Amino acid sequence: MPVPIVKFDPKDRLSDIMRAIVDLIECHFQITYPTTRLAASPQLREDPMLINIVKVILKILEQCTTEGMAGCTVIRLWLGSFTVGELLITLPPQLALQQSFQEIRHMNPPGRDVHLEIPGDEKKAYVISAAATFMPSCHISFGVDNACKNTIHSFRLISSPIPIEGPPPNMQPLRIVIINAGSVRNPDFSPTFAQLCDEFNPHLALVTETRVGGVEGRNQRLAVDFEASSSLNPDGYFEGTWFFWNPQLLGCQLMYHTDTSLSAELSFWV
Fold this sequence. Notes:
Blueprint: H1 16-29, H2 42-46, H3 51-64, H4 68-79, H5 84-90, H6 93-97, E1 103-107, E2 113-119, E3 124-133, E4 137-145, E5 150-158, E6 172-180, H7 189-200, E7 204-208, H8 214-222, E8 228-232, E9 241-245, E10 250-257, E11 261-268
Parallel strand pairs: 1-3, 6-7
Antiparallel strand pairs: 2-5, 3-6, 4-5, 4-11, 7-9, 8-9, 10-11
Helix pairs in contact: 3-4
């Protein structure tokens, strides 16, 4: 007996509730309706237990909306396998356990305004040697790019102009290490971050896409070998930022702090 071909309605023809469910799953699992199944999700490759989130979403869809079982069936047909056991079989074991950092990028930006945007799904580290400055400010934030359904982390460093009377005595280059962790539970994160900080002795360090908040996130952040830090908590299982500075090398005054952004004024010791 031939297997029936499942035909999915275009996304723009789905009901508001179904479209919201699809958008939620696409955003948090980085897959596309209706062509990509759940087993292809990079987030699920890292932590297969996230399947429980999908189960909760489907239970709400089935029991608390007018779509009921019919809507639930459509989502299930799109997503495919649902048990953790099935997913562990279909996912490559190495990817289920860890994701290696694909690139360490060295940057020497010449200008006074350094702006970097980092997609949340890129396993990448940056080593930045900024031009000599004396009172820079830095701005850190994260959000979701709805066009590509991905988190975007933003780092901006703005250096003060050199006074007319000449460079001040405490003017010096600024070393920054940024690592997009893809979860600080990633086994590659700690050794890579420690190695970069040991090698470059940065004034500032930034860890993006931490994906761990609350007490666990605070304890892990405070265990890092930096005396001073602040953080932005993740939104559920995604986003999140740790911000570190070395008080032996410079002063840091936090100017504002929201759920998704922070700003700081920096100054070098004379």
